[in-house]
Amino acid sequence: xxxxxxxxxxxxxxxxxxxxxxxxxxxxxxxxxxxxxxxxxxxxxxxxxxxxxxxxxxxxxxxxxxxxxxxx
Length: 72
Prior knowledge:
mainly alpha; elongated
């Protein structure tokens, strides 16, 4: 029979403390975008969403027109 290697159980408080210290370390390494970069990206996303909405609207209307033409 194979024995498992027993590791000592670390108390919950110590694990939480270690977890949050590691989170703090990782967050400090994040490169956050500038306000200008965020504004430009938001603008691009809004324009893309409008273009896609128009495209889908035109496709929907085209399909509706074809189906109505076939049904009549």
